[in-house]
Backbone:
């Protein structure tokens, strides 16, 4: 038995969230999020799907949560192209939420690593920027 894709419908869900966020077109959303319009279009068409990092970036730009994404993925189709996909092929909402939560945890782990590296770099830059003391011990 073939396992169902837990992210099937991700592109349509991203389009729903984009519209819900008030971005009528991909172009307007892409400009606001500083993403290439063609790339946003490809993500909404799931060819290819966004990386987890980019998915998090888009959700943040749309003011959406993982729960919002899961809800949008389970929403009833409203466009004719969506209706032809067939019904009853998706996973249970809890499975989708669990998969997305795991993905977000991985992103957050990477973010923590990145923030730690940035802090080390900043400390190094601060140390390098401190003026050298040219005074001699003993007041001389």
Residues:
């Amino acid at each position: 038995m073939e396992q169902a894709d837990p992210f099937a419908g991700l592109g349509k869900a991203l389009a729903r969230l984009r519209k819900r966020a008030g971005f009528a077109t991909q172009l307007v959303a892409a400009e606001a999020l500083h993403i290439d319009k063609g790339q946003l279009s490809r993500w909404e068409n799931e060819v290819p799907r966004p990386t987890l990092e980019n998915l998090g970036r888009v959700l943040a730009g749309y003011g959406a949560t993982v729960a919002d994404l899961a809800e949008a993925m389970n929403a009833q189709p409203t466009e004719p192209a969506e209706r032809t996909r067939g019904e009853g092929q998706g996973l249970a909402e809890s499975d989708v939420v669990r998969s997305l939560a795991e993905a977000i945890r991985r992103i957050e782990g990477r973010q923590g690593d990145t923030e730690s590296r940035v802090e080390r770099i900043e400390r190094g830059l601060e140390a390098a920027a401190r003026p050298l003391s040219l005074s001699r011990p003993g007041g001389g």
Summary: The first helix runs from residue 10 to 20. Confidence is low (pLDDT under 50) at residues 78-89.
